[in-house]
Amino acid sequence: MEIKRIAVYCGSAKGNDPVYVEQAKAIIHEMHKNGMGLVYGGGNVGIMGIIADEMLQLGGEVIGIIPQKLLEKEVAHHDITKLIVVQDMHQRKAKMFELSDAIIALPGGIGTMEELFEAFTWSQLGYHDKPCGVLNVKGYYNHLQEFLQHMVENQFLKQEFKDMLLFDEDPASIIKRLQSFEFPKTLKWY
Fold first, then answer.
1. Among 6, 67, 127, 133, which has the highest number of CB atoms less than 10 A from its own CB?
2. Taking 80 as the threshold, does the pLDDT of residue 98 lie above it?
3. CATH of region 5-179, choose from 3.40.50.450, 3.30.450.20, 3.40.190.10, 3.40.120.10
4. Are 49 and 16 in contact (CB under 8 A)?
5. Gap between the Cα atoms of 84 and 86, Å rounded
6. Using 50, 70 and 90 to split pLDDT, how confident is the model at 189?
7. pLDDT tens digits, one per residue of 68-82
8. According to the model, what pLDDT value does residue 190 have?
């Protein structure tokens, strides 16, 4: 599968450890090295601003999608390749998804989780075959992995579906895994 752009879901904060910023920059370097552009939430704050600035410094493409309400709060990044203003969060997610070939979640808050789970749910339901990955920086998502396995053990999630959400601690490795991902063709969600 050729991946031209990745939608990166991430925090509007930087977190409490410099490793979150370091790894965010590292994933951008891997994306750029592989000829991939960035689609993200359009902000200039936190990890969002950092990944946009890093891709711009490398000379790569940065497309930001921001709702009008957040634009009015002056958190938009106006110096990116393209800033698309939409009416609301639903349109933001739809546009980010439309413009990307894969998804990666970096450490973030509830917005990051909501975006990731929507894309992951759509893959389970067969609405798309785009690979979804999680960069598990410093074990940030260990509890999420455990909870997903808990869902499997309680028969609310099939193991095959859980395994479709790719977790990795290494930026280069997660990019390679997304590139080699093959969507299972015979799975049934029910």
1. 6
2. yes
3. 3.40.50.450
4. no
5. 6
6. low
7. 998 888 789 999 999
8. 62
H helices of the chain, in order, are 18-33, 46-58, 68-72, 89-99, 110-124, 142-153, 159-162, 171-180
Q: Which two tokens stand for residue 132?
A: 């979804």
Q: Which two tokens stand for residue 163?
A: 């395994």
Domain boundaries, the chain: 5-179
d(CA 51, CA 5): 14
Q: Scanning the structure block, which residue is given the tokens 């800033």?
A: 83
From residue 122, alpha-carbon distances to 106, 125, 127, 129 in Å are 19, 5, 5, 9
The pTM of the whole model exceeds 0.85: yes
Query: Pairing state of beta strands 102-105 and 5-9?
Result: parallel
What rounded mean pLDDT belongs to the chain?
Answer: 94
Distance separating alpha carbons of residues 9 and 65, to the nearest angstrom = 12
Q: Which two tokens stand for residue 185?
A: 């063709």
Q: What is the dihedral of CA 140, 177, 13, 9, to 10 degrees?
A: -120
